[in-house]
């Protein structure tokens, strides 16, 4: 028998260590230490009801266990085999106790659809994909459905583009399908560029066959026989696994001529990108694939009319494709039953930042930020205070505490001044400076701007200069107004989606953290202690014993002796010359007497 | 390799393959082997999954344990890489995190050989379709 005690940070804070200790002591007293093993586990993702204790092999799931409950669990459950009812989880809807964690699926906030095979099958073995029902969707489509029925099914499912903008996928396919041409193309946008985002890479590495199958389905629906995956060369493993999967699919006749005896031909090639952010924009992506500079062009004409090699092309993101086969096999109604009113299905997020369970997660649309951060994510690292969460990368914005209970989907994020984006989610605590965060994303955009249109090339540069001025303590209130003016012009006049959304990180922080901007400008203070030019190190001369370690550590020779000897000390205290100080913090991290602080 | 010609063929193939995978996943057959899946996406490999897998294979040989090792994609537990899933016949699969060579040895000698759990168990916190 095993007793599993949650050792996640949340449960540890609520005494899981004492619970383990009590289990061990009482089991030893009763001579059961060899029969029952107590083990600390990772986070169960149910922190609100912690600490969690699970008994195996019967999977009994006890919630909110207190150290003093341990004796009862041992006496009743372990010795007599009777479950301790009042510690079982109570279903809030029907007020019934649920004993078996296998019947507690509802507590699990995550639902994996796009990631259904990731971490489950061997991605380099097509047989494993087939054994999970793979390639049945393409078989169904070719055998039973007309192209228009496929498009209608996808439209009905409510699937929207997972690249970030959320355009309805079925509508996109329909636009491409109605254009007549001797050749059309299905393009998979695998140019994942948001800092910190790795959803698409994980899908391609974990389940490459799902992308291949989905592209073939799309090809049938829009009348294309060629598929192209635009993937960045910096994803070598994803490239390798896609290549293996394509070769295996060709061997099985699931790619190539006359697939499954239907007369439908389809094949896929890979195209490598050099990793420019702008190439995730579909027109720039197409130009890059044609061997031209990766620069966007005005839409219309949309790729559905004139795309790759001026032929009608349909561009979808990796995660969008990963949803397609399962929509075909399980039906549009099933898919549409998941998610919120206008955003159906699930979304994969790369959860990162100051959070305990950093990871790749997939939740139904409409899940609240609170559930993601505090249940799945296990809360903020070190028990610090939540400050903001950044979604949508360089095109998105920061959401704050007041948005924690917002059900997130495309529209609610847009309304809150951010966007879905491809799914990066960076959680920040009170050690993050929001002005510096806005600057970080703007630096990224400036670096990645292709330079074709002046609003993005010059406008963002001007905004970045102003942010630099503010973080160095030279900002004025007029600068804040100027930021807003520039942002409005860039949004209105930039050529492509990258440019039009690039001011979002600045605008959303201006809206949500106005006080912090004002503090930087008026009080010349950075409350998070991030903006180096705005802070000074100071030695408390009464705490300093004059050992001189700080002076030795200082690379700028900014620290020297004073004449002052504090009471009880033998040596004169030290002093930092702020004009020489480079604010590296070496003095403070070396001081054993806590005499140095940031002012 | 034989081409798949029709939906019926694909379905027959699925059934055959599924029973193979079932042997691996559900292990209804008590004599079937212990299965170890190693999460080997870029991130897992960067965290050392490949070395751990190699080490574990050698160790299993040394201990004369018949184990089938498989690579798989990302399990989503970035906070606990490298991660592996161990499926002992007749039991639910268990995911272990932060698996280094030392923990890999413990998993083999304690969990696989003696049914004793070791630190680093990650409870599955998602539903899959």
Describe the secondary-structure layout.
The complex is a heterodimer of chains A (599) and B (129).
Chain A: E1 2-6, H1 9-13, H2 16-29, E2 37-41, E3 53-56, E4 60-62, H3 70-79, E5 89-90, E6 97-98, E7 110-112, H4 126-131, H5 136-144, H6 147-157, H7 169-177, E8 185-190, H8 199-206, H9 208-222, E9 226-232, H10 236-251, E10 267-273, H11 282-289, E11 313-317, H12 318-330, H13 332-336, E12 346-353, E13 359-364, H14 369-376, E14 386-391, E15 397-400, H15 410-415, E16 424-429, H16 434-448, H17 454-471, H18 477-493, H19 497-501, H20 504-512, H21 514-523, E17 537-539, H22 549-553, E18 559-561, E19 574-576, H23 586-590, E20 596-598
Chain B: H1 7-25, E1 34-39, H2 42-46, H3 49-62, E2 67-72, E3 84-87, E4 94-96, H4 101-114, E5 121-122, E6 126-128
Parallel strand pairs in B: 1-2
Antiparallel strand pairs in B: 1-3, 3-4, 4-5
Helix pairs in contact in B: 3-4
Description:
The complex is a heterodimer of chains A (599) and B (129). By secondary structure, chain A is α/β, with parallel strands linked by helices. Chain A has 5 domains: 2-106, Glutaredoxin; 126-333, NADH-ubiquinone oxidoreductase 51kDa subunit (Rossmann fold, 3-Layer(aba) Sandwich), CATH 3.40.50; 346-429, Ubiquitin-like (UB roll), CATH 3.10.20; 434-523, de novo design (two linked rop proteins), CATH 1.20.1440; 536-598, Alpha-Beta Plaits, CATH 3.30.70. In chain A, strands 13-12-16-14-15 form a 5-stranded mixed beta sheet. In chain A, strands 2-1-3-4 form a 4-stranded mixed beta sheet, with helices on one face. Chain A starts with a strand and ends with a strand. The mean pLDDT of chain A is 92. By secondary structure, chain B is an alpha+beta fold. Chain B is built from 4 helices and 6 strands. Chain B has a 5-stranded mixed beta sheet with strand order 2-1-3-4-5, with helices on one face. Strand 7 (110-112) of chain A pairs parallel with strand 6 of chain B.
């Amino acid at each position: 028998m095993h007793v599993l005690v949650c050792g996640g940070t949340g449960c540890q804070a609520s005494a899981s260590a004492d619970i383990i200790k009590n289990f061990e002591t009482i089991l030893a007293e009763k001579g059961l230490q060899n029969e029952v093993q107590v083990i600390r586990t990772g986070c169960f993702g149910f922190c609100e009801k912690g600490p969690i204790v699970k008994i195996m092999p019967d999977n009994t799931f006890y919630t909110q266990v207190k150290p003093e409950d341990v004796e009862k669990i041992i006496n009743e459950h372990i010795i007599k085999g009777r479950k301790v009812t009042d510690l079982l989880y109570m279903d809030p809807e029907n007020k019934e106790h649920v004993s078996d964690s296998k019947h507690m699926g509802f507590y699990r906030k995550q639902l994996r659809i796009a990631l259904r095979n990731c971490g489950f099958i061997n991605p380099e073995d097509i047989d494993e994909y087939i054994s999970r029902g793979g390639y049945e969707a393409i078989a169904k489509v070719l055998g039973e459905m007309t192209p228009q029925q496929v498009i209608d099914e996808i439209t009905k499912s409510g699937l929207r583009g997972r690249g970030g903008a959320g355009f309805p996928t079925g509508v996109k396919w329909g636009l491409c399908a109605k254009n007549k041409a001797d050749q059309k193309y299905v393009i998979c946008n695998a140019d994942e560029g948001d800092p910190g985002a790795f959803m698409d890479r994980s899908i391609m590495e974990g389940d490459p066959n799902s992308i291949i199958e989905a592209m073939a389905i799309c090809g049938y629906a829009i009348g294309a026989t060629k598929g192209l995956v635009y993937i960045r060369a910096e994803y070598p493993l994803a490239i390798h696994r896609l290549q293996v999967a394509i070769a295996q699919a060709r061997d099985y006749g699931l790619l190539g001529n006359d697939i499954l005896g239907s007369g439908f031909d389809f094949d896929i090639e890979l195209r490598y990108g050099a990793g420019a952010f702008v190439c995730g924009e579909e027109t720039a992506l197409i130009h890059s694939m044609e061997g031209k500079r990766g620069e966007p062009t005005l839409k219309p004409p949309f790729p559905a009319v004139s795309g790759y090699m001026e032929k009608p092309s349909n561009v979808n993101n990796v995660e969008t494709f990963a949803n397609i086969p399962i929509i075909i096999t399980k039906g549009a109604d099933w898919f549409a039953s998941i998610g919120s009113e206008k955003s159906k299905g699930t979304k994969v997020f790369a959860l990162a930042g100051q959070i305990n369970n950093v990871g790749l997660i997939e939740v139904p649309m409409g899940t609240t930020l609170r559930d993601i951060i505090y249940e799945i994510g296990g809360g903020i690292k070190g028990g610090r205070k939540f400050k903001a969460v950044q979604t949508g990368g360089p095109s998105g914005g920061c959401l704050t505490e007041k948005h924690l209970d917002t059900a997130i989907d495309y529209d609610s994020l847009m309304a809150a001044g951010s966007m879905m984006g491809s799914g990066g989610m960076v959680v920040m605590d009170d050690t993050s400076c929001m002005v510096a965060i806005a600057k970080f994303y703007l630096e990224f955009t400036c670096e990645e701007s292709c330079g074709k249109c002046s609003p993005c090339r010059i406008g963002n540069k001007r905004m970045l200069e102003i942010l630099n001025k503010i973080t160095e303590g030279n900002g004025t209130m007029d600068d804040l107004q100027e930021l807003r003016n520039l942002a409005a012009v860039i949004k209105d006049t930039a050529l492509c989606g990258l440019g039009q959304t690039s001011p979002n990180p600045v605008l959303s922080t201006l809206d949500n953290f106005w006080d912090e901007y004002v503090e930087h400008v008026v009080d010349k203070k950075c409350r998070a202690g991030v903006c180096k030019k705005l802070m000074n190190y100071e030695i408390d001369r009464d705490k300093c014993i004059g050992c001189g370690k700080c002076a030795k550590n200082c690379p700028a020779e900014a620290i020297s002796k004073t004449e002052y000897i504090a009471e009880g000390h033998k040596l004169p205290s030290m002093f930092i010359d702020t004009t020489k100080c480079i604010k590296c913090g070496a003095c403070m991290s070396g001081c054993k007497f806590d005499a140095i602080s940031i002012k | 390799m034989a081409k798949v010609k029709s939906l019926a063929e694909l379905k027959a193939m699925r059934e055959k393959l599924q029973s193979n995978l079932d042997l691996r996943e559900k292990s209804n057959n008590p004599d079937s082997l212990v299965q170890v899946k190693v999460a080997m996406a870029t991130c897992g490999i960067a965290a050392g999954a490949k070395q751990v897998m190699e080490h574990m294979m050698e160790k299993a040989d040394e201990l004369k344990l018949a184990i089938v090792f498989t690579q798989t994609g990302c399990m989503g537990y970035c906070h606990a890489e490298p991660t592996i899933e161990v499926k002992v016949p007749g039991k639910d699969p268990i995911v272990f995190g932060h698996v280094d060579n030392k923990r890999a040895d413990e998993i083999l000698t304690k969990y696989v050989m003696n049914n004793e759990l070791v630190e680093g168990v990650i409870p599955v916190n998602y539903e899959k379709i």
